[in-house]
Amino acid sequence: MTPDQTFARYVRFSLVGFIFVFCYYVIADIWLPVTPQARVFHPVVQISPQTSGRVVNVLVSNNQPVKAGDILFEIDKSTHLLALEQAQLAQADAKLQNKRLDTNIKALEAQISAAKAKQHEQSLLKSRGEKLYKQNSISEQELESIRANFAASKSTVAALEAQLAEAVLARGTAGEDNLALRHAANQLAQAKLNLSYTQVRAFTDGVVTNLQLLEGDYALTGKPLLAVVAKKADLVADFREKSLLNMRVGSLAKVVFDSRPGEVYDAKIISFEAGVSDGQLSANGLLSSTENSNRWVRDAQRQRIHLQLINNKQLITNMQSGARATVQLLPESTIGQWLAASQIRVISWLHYIY
Fold first, then answer.
1. Which of 102, 179, 191, 295 lies in the 20 to 30 Å Cα band around 22?
2. What predicted TM-score, i.e. pTM, was given to this entire model?
């Protein structure tokens, strides 16, 4: 065989191989979809103080595991201690004020009793005076004076009863339902709550990461100062839209992690993402913007799915957030599943190289 014939044979073999690989790629992209765009994500909890102040004590170190409720750092509490003392004084003052009002009420009640006795006396004098006036024993002027004294006694009783009603209203109900005591108790509870905020705690189990906080830093309310990577993990994969044509929730999959080459894990689809950021519209008051592309063939849109390992659910919990993986989706047919399993097995071996 001449060199030209040998070259022509190689070219034919190459063309046949290219056509075979191209056809396999087109078919596999729909029936045996695989993607290297898969990651393990852990929720990251940003820890922000609920009060402002100077950081006086950092109780954790970088990459330290923490439990929910553990104290992460402490803020200077001197201002909050003063506020707590002020609230306690306000509560004591409210109790003292209630005692003053109780004493005032008793004094008014005693004055009312004396005024009513005086009124009764003036009533008797008025009756006697009117009889004497009819008998011409006293003058009309004396009678008018007696009547004026009786009216004055009635006014005195009415004024004292009004003062008593006002004092009772100011005193309010007795016991812990008293309005002044409730206000004082509310202020005291708020002061205690603010004091508790000086100890910033973890809200979930996880690991403190990228710790930059130092003693002496000034903490602002609502400003994140450190992050806790939660133990809960999520495995997500991004596929081209057409690759998910025959897949649904519950479809089986095979997963290979870059950190564990040669190992293939069984998984299943648990949910499809509702959308991607490119499909989000904001009511910003502007006109719509169209997509501009000079490419003849545009990039395929990818959609995200969420997966769950079947027999090793806790495996990804101990992996780092952002760990890469390759996901192979399995068709329903037996032959297709065999081909997909073979394909992901080859990929798992390649992870020893790259």
1. 295
2. 0.70
